[in-house]
């Protein structure tokens, strides 16, 4: 009788172990699927950015991404709204079907966003007679 109890307990323990292992494997599969979906969405967003940005603007944005990640993230947030993320599959399909977009965002727009985020104000430089450069405000006050 004692042996029968041991076998029964071992069987129950094995069932519990298998159930826990299955739960862990299911959680791991869900996490992997979520990561793949995120990569997939990220790849689609990059595809859309390549399509809507002029080539020099896209390469400038990539340079900012590697040199100044915080500035890149702020520019990215300006360019890619939640609506874009929500409708990313539709945008990819439209761009693929049409072979691109009619007008691309120029490099100037990316530089403008970068300067806005960094808080850089534009300055108008004036050349004085002796070749010295000074800003317009100083020139006008003299």
What does this 3D model show about the protein?
With 142 residues, this protein is mostly helical. The chain has one domain (2-118). The protein has helices at residues 2-52, 55-67, 69-79, 82-86, 88-98, 107-118, 136-141, and strands spanning 125-127, 133-135. It has a two-stranded antiparallel ribbon. It is elongated.
Q: How are the elements arranged and paired?
A:
Blueprint: H1 2-52, H2 55-67, H3 69-79, H4 82-86, H5 88-98, H6 107-118, E1 125-127, E2 133-135, H7 136-141
Antiparallel strand pairs: 1-2
Helix pairs in contact: 1-5, 2-3, 2-6, 3-6
Question: Which keywords apply here?
Answer:
mainly alpha; two-stranded antiparallel ribbon; elongated; 2 strands; 142 residues; 4% strand
């Amino acid at each position: 009788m004692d042996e029968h109890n041991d076998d029964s307990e071992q069987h129950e323990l094995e069932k519990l172990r298998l159930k826990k292992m299955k739960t862990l494997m299911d959680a791991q599969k869900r996490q992997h699927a979520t990561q793949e979906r995120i990569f997939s969405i990220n790849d689609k967003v990059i595809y859309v950015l390549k399509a809507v940005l002029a080539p020099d603007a896209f390469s400038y944005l990539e340079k900012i991404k590697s040199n100044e990640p915080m500035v890149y993230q702020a520019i990215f947030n300006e360019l890619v709204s939640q609506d874009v993320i929500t409708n990313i599959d539709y945008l990819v399909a439209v761009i693929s079907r049409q072979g691109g977009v009619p007008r691309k965002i120029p490099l100037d727009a990316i530089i403008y966003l970068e300067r806005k985020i960094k808080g850089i104000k534009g300055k108008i430089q004036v050349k004085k007679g002796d070749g010295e450069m000074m800003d317009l405000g100083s020139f006008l006050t003299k």
